Amino acid sequence: MSLPTLSAKNSTTVRSFIIRHGGALLSRLAIRLAPRWTARQAVRRFLTPPQRTVAPPHDFPAPCRQQLLNAGDQRIACRVIGPAGAPALILSHGWGGHGGQWQPFVAPLLAAGYQLWIPEHPAHGDSPGEQSSLPAFIASLEAAATAIAACGVRLAGLIGHSLGASAAALALYGRPLPGADADTRLLLLAPAASLLALSRQYAELYGLPETLRAAVQFRLEQQFATPWRRFELAELPVGPHPALLIHDRSDRALAVGHTLHIGQHWPQARILLTDGLGHQRLLQAAPVIAAVLAYLRGEKIGTQATPASVSRCY
Questions:
Q1: How far apart are alpha carbons 162 and 67 in whole angstroms?
Q2: What is the CATH number of the domain that holds 241?
Q3: 40 lies in a domain?
Q4: Is 49 a member of any domain?
Q5: Which of 82, 132, 149, 314 can pair with 122 through a Cys bridge, CB separation 3.0 to 4.6 Å?
Q6: pLDDT per residue as tens digits for the range 75-131
Q7: 138-180 pLDDT tens trace
Q8: pTM for this structure?
Q9: What pairs with residue 244 in β-bridges?
């Protein structure tokens, strides 16, 4: 009797099953036999971004200058595009991303009269390093804001995608940000509401037991001297800054419930939901770019979230 031929879909399903359940068995065995070593390896993996991609130089119009900024104990590359005296926008890419992903936004934002600061977070794009983290993302944005303020330029807004959106919210709402004022706007594309939720999603993907996930959380809280509770976006003291959250209903990387959960805790926030764009195509969609421009002009875009709109947070 011959074995049945697996289709590509079935083959992928089998591999996924083996990775998830085989990984869970191996992880449980490893954490029982060598708990400290296993936790260290899991932390290293959690802090290591996917293989980096660097944006081709021609992705950005001239004049475009690149400079190195000090972000905490790391250095980051930052592209600066546009007229020196114009109000500034900081664009924050997500985990495993790079500054070149903002290329579709560049020409429209320049035409609207802004200068753009596009930092690449540690271990991403042209920035050095092998590891990164949400605190490192936040430090990158603070470094860019500090450089903008040193130029005597107003910070008009922060635009972020995915984990870069979460970092933008934490940078603006979590502490005083240089150059920001009450009118500095926050635009979040597919943000992650919770680092705890992300870690659980990561653990589920790789079949890691909860004991190992909790060990990773404990070690990272010790390493950064910060409890993960501080990274819950719904619990931030939001202050006066206006916010627009854009999320696709079919997003499989970060469920739309992340944005709905944030929105019902931010009374000043507005929410715009899209269909059929998923997680990455938000960065190329003309309607999304048009909504961002309109919101920066002060137009009312989207609606406010209500408790009734959230059936499942994430």
A1: 24
A2: 3.40.50.1820
A3: no
A4: no
A5: 132
A6: 999 999 999 989 999 999 999 999 999 999 999 999 999 999 999 999 999 999 999
A7: 999 999 999 999 999 999 999 999 999 999 999 999 888 999 9
A8: 0.87
A9: 187, 270
